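notes to self, project folder thing:

trying the whole complex as one job this time. last attempt i did each chain seperately and stitching them together was a nightmare. two parts in total, labels are on each line so i dont mix them up again. if this works i'll redo the older ones the same way
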Amino acid sequence: MTDLLLTNAKLIDPEGGTVITGALGISDGRISAVITDDSPLPEARTTVDCGRKHLAPGIVDIGVKVCEPGERHKESFGTAGLAAAAGGVTTMVTRPDTDPAIDNPETLEFVIRRAREAAPVNVLPMAALTKGRQGREMTEIGFLLDAGAVAFTDCDNVVTDTKVFGRALAYARSLGALVLGHPQDPGLSAGAAATSGKFASLRGLPAVSPMAERMGLDRDIAMIEMTGARYHADQITTARALPPLERAKANGFDITAGTSIHHLTLNALDVADYRTFFKIKPPLRDEDDRLAVAEAVQSGLIDVISSMHTPQDEESKRQPFEAAASGAVALETLLPAAMRLHHAGLVDLPALWRALSLNPARRLGLEAGRLRVGAPADLVLFDADAPFVMDRADLRSKSRNTPFDGARMQGKVLATYVAGSRVYERT
Amino acid sequence: MTFTHRHLLGIEHLRPEEIVTLLDLADDYVALNKGETKHSEALAGLTQINMFFENSTRTQASFELAGKRLGADVMNMAMQASSITKGETLIDTALTLNAMHPDLLVVRHPHSGAVDLLAQKVNCAVLNAGDGRHEHPTQALLDALTIRRAKGRLHRLNIAICGDIAHSRVARSNIILLGKMENRIRLIGPPTLMPSGIAEFGVEVYDDMARGLEDVDVVMMLRLQRERMDGGFIPSEREYYHRFGLDAAKLSYAKPDAIVMHPGPMNRGVEIDGTLADDINRSVIQDQVEMGVAVRMAAMDLLARNLRDLRGAA
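result (full assembly):
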């Protein structure tokens, strides 16, 4: 007998590219039936009428920072896990830019244990590509893979020494490991707090040309060509970086690219009078760039949307803009922010879920991210239209540095399921 | 009265008529400062604190003198030496200070936007004495007063601003102020010292002094910071002086009655020829210093009036 039957739902199928009303059966933590026609519904222990709301694969979020080890006052696996569940994120792929960096199997095992104890959602950790994320020596990629690392990245520390980077890529390639790069020319972007242009100049902020991203991507593409590595660009945020990305894909390189929800929904002007919650890395871009990147998500050129969840405490944000820490929390605002793209007609729902769930799952070799019989029953049920005013005091994250505080948003998560178990329900 | 602000954080927030109001009042203070008794009671009973997180002799002295001439109790705090180096945040410093009930806070800080941030956390009037590369409003106002007195007007002038525009808060405040007053602004300097997005500023950009200075009424030179002189932004001091330093030959392209300005302190032989800087027929650099005190008196007077109105209403 089916354990759980979710009926009367608008099923978002990123594989088929469709939104069809139907029902979903769940047994033993997996999807056991997808019914979108008149065929009879299976008998179930529990049946939930979804009230014609949207049911989609849970979000697979590549690049979440949970501040364990080192800065647990900013975020723990417990709080991040609750935030993820409330945001419809069923798999957090965590970043190794902790303090200390997750660069050895022992630290990784600690992280996996903590995640298992505290987080109600799936947690898959990434590990550093080089020791201490310092760009000098590669980490024990083999041991780390064995210990459960799903990808390797130095996060926003660009490995500047191309010999080191090349060897790490080649070594990772031999093990089939995925490497995440941060496409950015480190010389141009050093010290930058904003994207260059009239606004940054008027505000007197040190700024980086958007060209720095293309230069970083061009370099990384050459390195991929040289080594044959499996590569994922963490954030592509500028129009200028899109043609080289397109060429690299056409050339058959093993490359995918992500972008952040903030770069898809905000632009450089949102910083206004030095609002430090809008300080992220890379910095927010011009509106033209935002639209180009959104279009690339719709077309599929950009594969993945991430929250780039980066908790910062009040102290590190209550600083002059240049001195303030970068990053924003986003686990709980990812879905309503993504709904802005849907409501604006920029990206449709199947394309959104292709980038939020299907592609990241595929890239990491996970079975999740699909509405298909046999796939894990990691699901999010949400109301795409429900309006609300974001209040950061309501966030479950320990840190509440969201740029959406006070913003009018649409899209409320109603329930989140991980392996068929409800880990969140809106009350 | 057409000046309604609580703080003076930048020129960006001022309307043209507010600029005129302030300059008119400053004119009165120029007269007062030339008189025998250089004193008024406009700020009597008020406390003025000068917080300088960045070295300054001239601006701090100018604000101090302005406050004292208006009867305020003035205190100077050199912030590099204080708790800021012990890791206290700017906001904590502001809150501590706020508890001492100052009425006027004059702040200079190396980070753009820091003075705005501080102003949100205190309940007194805040004057920006320079924040990072952002704004230096009293400098632009004193430059405007100097120009108005020398040229008899503050509109429809050709004004060249020369040198390190990219790193200069003086340039930004002047571009905004002179633009609001409907002047034609030219920026002259090497491309490495131009800010990004400059094409959208509504100014003309030159990298050649001879063409840039043609027919200008006002030549504003900027100070080239010593740390920018070698290699990084310009090849060398001597090449910079050769191409962009103001001397009599380059000035000859400007109008015959063009005035020469410099916010100080000058690097003689780097951005300006020493003899030219001292030429009382062309250089108004000493006038700028004099106008500086008057403009700061006017700014603090206006802010104090608004502060008293606000408190009276409360």
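what i see at first glance: Chain A has one domain: 57-363.
need to look closer tmrw
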